[in-house]
Amino acid sequence: MGKFARYIHQELGLSESEEPKDLADTDRYGMFKAGPVLSVSHGMGMPSMSIMLNELLKLLYHARCSNVVMFRMGTSGGLGLEPGTVVISKAAVDACFRPRYTQIVLGQEISRPTELDQGLVDELLHVAAQEEGLTAVAGNTMCANGFYEEQGRLDGAFCDYTEQDKLQYLQKGRDAGVRNLEMESLCFAALCKKAGVKAGVVCVTLVDRLRGDQVTTPHDTLKEWELRPQKLLAKFISSRLGIK
């Protein structure tokens, strides 16, 4: 997130005297400010995302920020997509492909909707179409509670299913509109929606999970792919601010 803050700082043409610095008074996550952009790390998985997002939403409220737009960006596993494709999420879904985030609050099961702002989806697709060498698609993003079994991986410490079982499950997700898998979008979408904040999820795929679990792409290529969501969002932010 520090790297993105420095990148967007340069893209927005901000003063060198305003070089982004880590403003977070915690070791749980980093927070960098570049002009009107806050760049915050969220850790791994939904618990870390939930902690950060609760604290960030309170900060934005007390700072009296308005017209806020939030994005989760990063990497993911794809479903039936060429690695390097950027997925712009229409909705986050759980491991049963349902668009809802379920929590236990005071012993009661609470479910919250996880659809994302469709206007942002269309706007991001429009920006992506103007970027040479960038392939972007819209689709649902499956958010799992773990990296291995919940995503149907065969390479974890435990695996009580076959490769055929895995492929049947992932194909079922593909048929339900899922285009990528990660571990944070469900919580992010639900809490932003509850707070009334427009939100989007933009993740690049590093592997097609219908073909395998291991990422075998050369390191330099992966680094270029990982920049694609950053470049797309930088163009979106510049456009929103009227900076060409």
Rg on CA atoms, Å: 18 Å
Shape: globular
Quantity of strands, as a count: 9
Oligomer: single chain
Q: What does the main sheet amount to?
A: 5 strands, mixed, barrel
pLDDT average, as an integer?
93
The secondary structure category is alpha/beta
Which regions have little confidence, pLDDT < 50, spanning 5+ residues?
none
Percentage of residues in helical conformation: 25-40%
- Distance between the terminal alpha carbons, to the nearest Å? 23 Å
Helical segment tally? 6
Q: Give helix and strand order, one letter per element, not per position.
A: HEEHEEEEHEHEHEH
What fraction of residues sit in β-strands? 25-35%
Strand order of the largest sheet: 3-8-7-4-9
Overview of the molecule:
Phosphate binds at residues 28, 72-75. One of its GO terms (molecular function) is uridine phosphorylase activity. It catalyses: uridine + phosphate = alpha-D-ribose 1-phosphate + uracil. With 244 residues, the protein is α/β, with parallel strands linked by helices. It has helices at 2-11, 46-62, 118-129, 163-175, 185-195, 219-240, and strands spanning 31-34, 37-40, 69-78, 86-93, 100-105, 108-113, 136-143, 178-182, 198-208. The strands form three sheets. The chain has a five-stranded mixed beta barrel, surrounded by four helices. A two-stranded antiparallel sheet has the order 1-2. Strands 5-6 form a two-stranded antiparallel ribbon. A hairpin with a 2-residue loop joins strand 5 (100-105) and strand 6. Helix 2 (46-62) runs parallel beside helix 5 (185-195) and helix 3 crosses helix 6. The chain is globular, with a radius of gyration of 18 Å. The chain starts with a helix and ends with a helix. The mean pLDDT is 93.
